[in-house]
Amino acid sequence: MKVLLYQGGLSLVGQSGVGQAVRHQQQALLRAGITPVADWRADAPVVHINTVLPDALFAARRARRQGRRVVYYGHSTMEDFRDSFCGSNLAAPLFRRWILHCYRQGDVVITPTAYSRRILLSYGLKQPVYSLSNGVDTSFFAPSPARRARFRQAYGLADDHMAVLSVGHLFARKGLPEFLELARSMPQVRFFWFGHTDRRLQPRAIRKAVANAPANVCFAGFADREALCDAYCGADAFAFMSHEETEGIVVLEALACGTPTVVRDIPVYSGWLRDGENVYMARDLDGFRERVAGLLTGGLPSLREAGRAVAQQRSLEAVGRRLCQIYTELGGVPAAPAGE
Q1: Taking the domains of the chain in order of start, what are their residue ranges?
Q2: Arithmetic mean of pLDDT, 270-277
Q3: Whole-angstrom Cα distance, residue 330 to residue 107?
């Protein structure tokens, strides 16, 4: 079987979680014995659409005219659009209407978690909405002493130097201001932020926060997955202070690498991450400081193995198997024009 993995717009989102999710889909399909293709001339009965750019909407309509089944991925919600780019809060209600229009072009919608599924259903979607993790490549993202040594050598970290990592766009929603405050309160620890956002798209408050970051913070910029895996393995803790996610691929990557992890206590993690069992959770800056410090000093168990088990349950092999099941169920969904 072949599946058409629509590539339009990926040049714009390649460095985001959506771009990563598309790459994961490609690998998940291959590992399930399905051939992902990009050519519309291929005999592919199913089309995957991942973005909400205008070209993706036209691609979904084209697929439906050709009698193909459309799997639309619901990576975005109004909630996780807020507190991102300049003007995002003002545009959020319009964004909600637009993504709903896009998702309605699918025969089914796939979204990463039960939490994001509840949000999309609350918008009034009538299509079947499945929750399926974006997955993580656990054969690549894995603990590695060699990677740890390479990261620490690259950034001049001695054996007794503690390093805390976070990954994401330079957004308020990602918890960047709180991350900088956490670093400011722990001057003896090195803090690393991997990820890039065009400065022209950053709100003024974020630009100011970055410009006034404490000296123990390193903005490492965008990194390919080799460098990112080195960073997960080389860090002593992963602090993900995001206020809103549909899943958080970087959390899965950190857990797969065995990095002790602290996340914000928000609804998206309900049911699959558990405080004190496979991660630590915090509600505010003081909570993050307490838990990160506990991990760095050894006062808290690392929970590495339990975190790895969470990642293994969301391996690309598991995602591929579930996609095959969804395709089977999709066979009974008519490919009639979508309603508005």
Answers
A1: 2-135+315-330, 145-313
A2: 97
A3: 8
Hey, CA dihedral for 296, 300, 305, 310, is it positive or negative?
negative
The CA-based angle 234-84-248, given to 5 degrees, is 45
N- to C-terminal Cα separation, the chain: 31
pLDDT at residue 335, as a whole number? 39
Does 145-313 match 2-135+315-330 at the fold level?
Answer: yes
Does domain 2-135+315-330 bear CATH number 3.40.50.1460? no
In whole angstroms, what is the distance from residue 222 CA to residue 242 CA?
Answer: 18
Rounded-to-integer distance, Cα 149 and Cα 145, Å = 6
Q: Is the pLDDT of residue 287 over 80?
A: yes
List of residues 6+ apart from 67 with CB closer than 8 A: 335
- For 47-84, how does the pLDDT look when each residue is reduced to its tens digit (9 = 90+)? 999 999 999 999 999 999 999 999 999 999 999 888 78
Q: Considering the domain 145-313 in this protein, what is its CATH number? A: 3.40.50.2000
